[in-house]
Give the backbone structure.
Amino acid sequence: MFREAIQQMTAYVPGEQPRRTKVIKLNTNENPYPPSPRVVEAIRQAAGGGLQKYPDATANAFRERAAEVLSADLPQITPDWILCGNGSDDLLTILTRTFVGEGDRLRYPNPSYVLYKTLAEIQGAEPDAVDFDEDWSLGSRFAAAADRLRLAFVANPNSPSGTLVPPNDMAQLADALSCPLVVDEAYGDFADTNCLALVGANERVIVTRTLSKSYALAGLRFGFCVAQPQVIEQLAKVKDSYNCDALSIAAATAAIDDQVWLHDNRAKIVATRARLMQAMRGKGFAVTQSHANFVWCIDANRDLKQLYEDLKAEGVFVRYMPYHGWPEGVRITVGTDNQIDACLALI
Ligand SMILES: *Cc1c(COP(=O)(O)O)cnc(C)c1O
């Protein structure tokens, strides 16, 4: 009774969410600090009245505030350049369903976010993983023409490497590709540059963002994408009518309104990130320069699976990640200074 594509695919496995409470969780790139206090207040107010009614289907309050904030990078942006979703994973699903049909091809780099392959497989499309170059740039192979190539995803900064494709290179890639390019900026707020301006220059560039990481709201589920209005109009046909609930819209609006909180939090994460990178290099790991809120560590002389197990036994969760054709590594989320000190001491 199942579609063949579903029966054949292997399920996406999200990062471990341990039930024990006294653990140090550095495995799924959550923010270690609580969100802006204004977020909790907004949820309290929204919960106090109106839950019997459906939410605003297009989350206008959020889109208006977000357009103001994002205009620093994309001056022409207005609310109709933004589509909101139940986490940015929801937007990635909407984008895939909009552009990719059965037998089509969906391209993404390797190693990167594993969900891209899952989204292709659900559609019965062909996952087209193209290896990063050794220096974590995307060579001309990524832009090469291919039969039925309909969509490309690039996480930027990338996970697990934390590396960044500079906006100029991304613009060239978008121009060379024969299909739309989604720049997944889940970690964009932790980097010094982003690709929002590319959206203004090219209708085939779409940027996705999430409030899960930089706004410390992974438990809330809110993300959005930015594209030219005629693209948003088509994407909106594919989304669930009420894909964001009233509480998350209120909370996300309060969160993006508090840019002072964002900048303070970012400064803390970036400082701890530098310390973590330096300490891991001091222990002999090869560490790529991170532009995100995690650090990718490789060491051919260590059994990293064992390291992951040993840390877990002590209540410290990191992510052990083997990728086909690449050296295995551990990805460590930037926690609080105390959490990182505890992790480093165990290593
Ligand atoms: C965390 C993450 C997402 C998903 O974020 P949600 O908004 O929580 O769904 C998307 N892309 C990448 C690369 C991520 O790491």
Q: What stands out?
A: The first helix runs from residue 4 to 8. The two ends are 49 Å apart (CA to CA). The chain has 13 helices and 13 strands.
